[in-house]
Design brief:
This protein has two domains: 20-124, Alpha-helical ferredoxin (Fumarate Reductase Iron-sulfur Protein, Chain B, domain 2, Orthogonal Bundle); 133-249, no CATH class. Strands 1-2 form a two-stranded antiparallel sheet. With 250 residues, the protein is mostly helical. Helix 1 crosses helix 5 and helix 9 runs parallel beside helix 13 (221-249). 52% of the residues lie in helices and 2% in strands. It has 13 helices and two strands. The protein is globular, with a radius of gyration of 24 Å.
Length: 250
């Protein structure tokens, strides 16, 4: 009687009785390979004594289900399913204060490793990345369209409920108050300051060359399309302006 030779290697991750889609081992290997291929990986991960100093001094560990030591252990042992699971929620609890890096006797930087995992989650279009970045879509649109990260008219009670009683202060007549500011560029609540066309185009180019726009397309296709249209229009305006300047010189 022949016995089957089924492999003991786990090929999928997930609860067999749940409706969540399984993740193939090949996908998890690809995700880990992307993390490991980053030039910062070997600098941020040097081993682990499992001493727990990083977790003991981590502010996020006191309030969330998050442990810097767990992140280091998962990556050091190449625990693929554990890494994938951590990228669904835990890595987004890190405050990026890097207290862990300052205290680790091995010279590890769990905060730096979390950053690599976050970037990889974005690259692979994980739902956790989409959920985390969705509230920032308005800020990103403001930045790419005006060169300003925030503007006074974006500060509302609904957007900043964690301000508590102090949030009432934003009900001040901002438009009236800003008209009293001598600098003409501050006589508006739509932008914090005026950004010229050349600077805007340079900003778009940096986003393009560094892969920020590619990552944005992965997590928010609609926002990517809007920003691309704005970029094309701004670039054309800049080219027209340069031609006008050249004609004036001639």
């Amino acid at each position: 009687m022949e016995h089957s030779h089924a492999s003991r290697v786990q090929t999928v991750i997930g609860d067999p009785v749940s409706e969540k889609p399984v993740v193939s081992r090949e996908d998890m290997e690809e995700i880990f390979a992307d993390i490991q291929a980053d030039l910062r990986f070997d600098h941020e991960l040097n081993g682990c004594l499992n001493c727990g100093i990083c977790t003991a001094t981590c502010p996020a560990a006191h309030y969330y289900d998050f442990s810097p030591r767990e992140i280091v252990q998962l990556l050091w042992t190449e625990n693929l399913d554990g890494i994938y699971d951590a990228m669904q929620e835990k890595i987004w609890s890190c405050a990026q204060c890097y207290t862990c890096a300052a205290r680790c006797p091995f010279g590890n930087s769990p905060g730096g490793l979390v950053m690599l995992m976050r970037e990889t989650a974005i690259k692979h279009g994980m739902e956790s990345a989409k959920n985390v970045l969705r509230p920032f879509s308005r800020v990103m649109l403001k930045l790419i369209s005006t060169g300003n990260q925030l503007a006074p008219d974006m500060i509302t009670k609904d957007a900043f409920p964690d301000w508590g009683p102090n949030v009432a202060k934003i009900d001040a007549p901002l438009k009236l108050l800003r008209k009293a500011i001598p600098m003409p560029t501050l006589n508006t609540t739509e932008t914090a300051w005026e950004v010229n066309l050349k600077t805007s185009v340079e900003l778009y180019t940096i986003w393009e060359m560094t892969g920020v726009l590619d990552q944005l397309e992965t997590v928010d296709q609609n926002l990517f399309d809007v920003i691309t249209d704005i970029m094309d229009e701004k670039r054309q305006d800049y080219e027209d302006w340069k031609e006008e300047q050249q004609d004036a010189e001639d």
